[in-house]
Amino acid sequence: MRMFRNLLCVLCVLCGGVFDLGCGYTLAGRSSTLPASIKTIGIPLFINRTTVFNLETALTTKVRSEFIGRGKFTIVSDATGVDAVLTGEVTAVSITPASINANQLASRYAITIVARVELKDTKANMVIWDNPGMVFRQEYDATANQTGQTAIDPTAFFGQETNALDRLSTEFARSIVSAILEAF
């Protein structure tokens, strides 16, 4: 009887393992919901409708790098001769105080970027993914210039804080690529 019970336990474990193989889980960031026909994605320079100098270059470069880092697609900067094209347009950038210190000065800022992003299958002439009002928000500690004033103008802020622009671009790119590839 005991041998029968042990055999039954072993069979249950083996059956559970077999059923678990088809569960559909994958590692985060490694799956893709794009059609199998898409191998090459063109990512031309995003359009910048804001006053922030070079913002479109930083965002486009980071989006390309994020796609390349995922390793599934060939990424080019041209929109011709590709399976899909990812276009983007930055429509607004704002910086607002997120917290105030004891001296009633901003100690932390919230930076918000609004963009239109679209991925289009060039062969089928069909939009695969789009977000016409993508809002990305991140907070940063305030830094003061030589006069002790903090910048609330996006152009001045990014002029002082190139690290903030780099971090913001990286996180912006991750959110776009994850949304496209993982269908979130």
Task: Describe this protein's structure.
It is built from 4 helices and 6 strands. The radius of gyration is 23 Å and the shape is globular. The protein is α/β, with parallel strands linked by helices and 184 residues long. About 7% of the residues have low confidence. Strands 1, 2, 3, 4, 5 and 6 form a 6-stranded mixed sheet that branches. It has one domain: Double Stranded RNA Binding Domain (2-Layer Sandwich).
Broad structural category: alpha/beta
Overall spatial form: globular
| Mean residue pLDDT | 80
| Continuous helix count | 4
Strand coverage percent: 25-35%
- Tell me the number of strands: 6
Helix content: 25-40%
CATH superfamily placement: Lipoprotein like domain
Largest sheet: 6 strands, mixed
Q: Which blocks of ≥5 consecutive residues have pLDDT under 50? A: 18-30
- CATH level 3 topology: Double Stranded RNA Binding Domain
Distance between the termini: 52 Å
Helix-strand string: HEEHEEEEHH
Number of domains: 1
The level-1 CATH class: Alpha Beta
The radius of gyration computed from the alpha-carbon positions, rounded to a whole number of angstroms, is 23 Å
CATH architecture: 2-Layer Sandwich
Secondary structure layout:
Blueprint: H1 2-20, E1 40-42, E2 47-48, H2 55-70, E3 74-76, E4 84-100, E5 106-121, E6 126-141, H3 154-160, H4 162-182
Parallel strand pairs: 1-3, 1-4, 2-4
Antiparallel strand pairs: 4-5, 5-6
